[in-house]
Every structure is written in C-alpha cells, then in structure tokens.
Write a structure and sequence with these properties.
This protein is of the alpha+beta class. Helices cover 50% and strands 8% of the residues. The longest helix has 31 residues. The chain starts with a helix and ends in a 5-residue tail after the last strand.
Amino acid sequence: MLSFSFASGLVALLLLPPLAIILKGLYNIFLHPLANKVPGPFWARFSGLPSWYYAYRGDRHLWLHRQFKAYGYRVRIEPNTVLFCHPQAYDAIYSMKANVRRGRFYEALKRDVNDTSTLTCIDVAAHAKKRRCLNLCFTERSILAACRFVIAHVDRWIDIITSEDIQDADEWSQPLNFSDKVDALIFDITSDLSFGKSFNIKEPEDNPFKDIPHNIAEWLKFHYLISRVPFLDLLLWLKPRGLDRLFGFIAPPSAKHYDQFVQDSVTSRIAVYREQDKEPEEEGRQDLFHFLAEARDPKTGTVAYDENELRAESNLLLIAGSDTSSISLSGIFFYLTGNQLKLNKLMEEIRTTFQSLDDIVYGQRLRSCTYLRACIDEGMRLTPPGPSELPREVLSGGIEIKGEFYPAGTIVGTTNWANSRNPEVYEDPDVFRPERWIVDEATGVTKESVARAKAAFHPFSSGPASCIGQNLAMAEIQITIARTLYQLDVRRAPGSTLGGGSPELGWGRTDPNQYQLVDAYISLREGPEVQFRRRGFGA
C-alpha cells in the first residue's frame, strides 16, 4: 500500500505542471477577459509560447505581420496581449495622455536590481523623473558639441574605406559588407561620446575591441529571449532571488564580455571626469557622459545619477546610440544602391547644395536638403530599428482603442514592421519611394497623402517614452550620408544579393529587393555589399 501510494503521488506530482498549463490555457481561451473579443491564432491565445518561439527564431516581426493580414487590424498575439496595426491605435497607446505604462517586458532587460535606466524603469513617476534628467544631456548645445566628434569620425572612416585598396582615382574598392563597416563607425562615435574615448574599431589594424558590436548583438539576443518568456511574472519574481546570478552564469561569453566592457569603460570615464571636474568647464571634454554626470534634477538641484545609474544610462546610450543609427544607415544604403535613379538624385542634391566639404555640418543648410530627409525617412520606414512592438500595460481605469475598451492589466502595442507596410497608409508599401514624403501635385503626391504618411511614421516612437536622442541620431545620419556621398560614388557590388530576400528563406523573406532583418528587440542585419570610389567619374 505504501509503495502504491508513493507511486500514485509521484505520478500526480509529474502530471500537475502539464495539467496546470492545460487548465490555464483553457481559461485563456474561454474565460479570459479578452476571450471572444479579439481574434488571433488558437495557440497564441492558449499560451505565450508561439510568440516566444518566433522571437527565438528572430522573425517574430514577420509572424506578427502575417497575423494582421489574416485577422485584421488587431490581433490577440498572447493570452493577455493585443497588438494593433492602425494609426489611431498608435495614438491611443503611445500619446502623452495614454493611460498606460511600459510593460514588465522592460524589467526583464535588467541584468540585476541595480541596472535601472530610463529604458528599464516602468514606474510612471520614476520614469518621468529620469527623462527630465536625461533631457539635460540632449540640449542643442550638447548636440552641437557632439557633432564635432561625429564629423571627425566620419571623415576618418571615409579615408579608411577609400585608402585600403583603391590605387587609382577611378577604381572601385573591393566589395565591403556595409553593415559591418557602419557598425564600426557608429560604435566609435557613440563610445567616444559615451565613454570619453574612441575604441577605434573602424581602423584597419586589429585590436581587442573589434568584436564589441557583435557582442552587443549577442547580449541583446540573450536578454530579449528572457524578456519574451511566457511566464514573465514568475521570472521577474525569481530574478532577485538568485535567477539573476544564474543568467549571469549561463549568458554567452560574448554577452559577458560586453557587460565587462561597459563596467570597465564607465569606471575609467568616471575617473577622467573627476579629474576634469577640477578644470575650467571650457577645458573639459564635453561629451555626452560629461553632460550626464553634470545633470541635476530640475526640481531639487541635486545630482541626477549615482554611479550605478551612470553605468545603466551609459549602457543605454551605447546600445541605443549605436544601433538606431547603424541600422538606419544600413537600410538606407541598401535601398539607395538598389535604385540608381534615386541615388543619383540624392547625390545631385548634396553636391549642388554644398560648395565644399567644410559646408556639411550640423545646421540649417543640412536640414534643408529635402530629398536627403525623404531618403532617410523612407529608409527608416522600411528598416525600423525595432521591428516588433514596444509593449504597454493598461493602468487602472482601462483604455479605449478604436472605440473598444480594454481593461487594466492588458498589454497593448503596435508593431513597427507591420505599421510601416500598412497599405491603408502607404501606397505600394514595399517599394522604396522617397518621393512619397514630398508634396508634388504633378506626380500625384498630395498634401493629404504626405500628412497621412507622416502621421503614421514614428521611427523614434512618441509620447513619454520617445527616443530622447533622436535629434542627435538624425544629425549623425544626415552628416554621414551627406559627407560620404559628397566625396564618394557608391554602388552595389555586381551580382551581390547580401541583405536581400530569396525564395528559400520562406514567407516574408522572398523579395530580393527587401532588406532582411532579424528581430532581437533591435534589428540585426547583414549587408548590403557595396563598393566605393572617389567622386568625379562616370558610373
């Protein structure tokens, strides 16, 4: 009898977790507040596992796009998550007055309890305070100071890509993987601004920091999969109770190397800052870290960041500052080198607007390049730096989205990849057509169509959690494109398909003219493969 009872108990114990999962799944299908209210695939309504699976594959943004095509503008993509593909829904969710806060997804991106930055803070009041302080680092004065660093790095980058293997003035360079090259450029700029020194990974010589952009990608992939797990509440409860240490142990070596890199870099920069604090302000190094360390709470006048917060915010500046610009530039050059007419039109604007290279600086003349800005907007539309949703949790009192009520606790959001390809907003949404952003009645581009496109276009997000460095990022992108195309011709390497789709890649990845992204919170990518030569010779 004792043996039978023990065996029965063991069987019951083993069956309990699967039974609990099944019962929870049945509740999600039939009794959940969203049941029978929002359509979606059965297994996604049953559990969050399908969503996590596609995050693991790196094509969650494509899976979401497919669901919108199947179910309409709103889809229940997880038991408690409703995503939308509609401009009105975007405004309802991400506006300044929206009754939401950042989802707990962001808390899972924290490495430990001390790793709280403006990105990972979800408390509305605390986040607003952090934003007020971080705003002080992105004034017009700080951006103007930062652009001097940007120009120096871009000019050095151009020297490198035109001197490594070009012997004659009219000779094309060897094919280059543009995403690798631009990753190195933008990382050197961002590290210079964030940590007070460039790590010179764009230089041709080997150095121990060459793998840092790859390590950032691995760090993001690892933490992104953690943040997308179906049992997020349990995971967040366990993290400060030992799970953080376990994650630190099992993290890929590249992710660990990146953590150590940030730790060492901030420690070094703090030491430099403390030395410079003794010098007159005009003699100090006025990079972003300087403004971050100098920031004072506008309400209290006290120092805004302690040392742990400086580390967390520096990590945010490095990832956000590097990836947004480099992803956008990769997409823009992919589409430009795939359309010679558009590329020629842009080069003509740049080369006639500016009389010399020294004229291409941050300022009104650069901002007046209409077609340059149209190419940037169109490239960012087709290559969103973050392809999936930025999740928001509905607060007490609920929220109304497109005339329907969603209760407190519901996770809502819109997806950048699907939004940018919404045929109700953009005609021929898969086509790179910068002209869609410029009113021209002769070609049928009306004020209404441009206004509709702009109203649905949020490359830096909007509302209380919009990208705080968007003005610097835009200046960085404009300077890089304008100074490069003023001096160099560029073309897609003959016969190269790197970065484009192909039939064997499956749904959403078959078009060779569509730049392919991997969803890892930010967009990972390869290519295009390009060649450069010095300006002044025919194609």
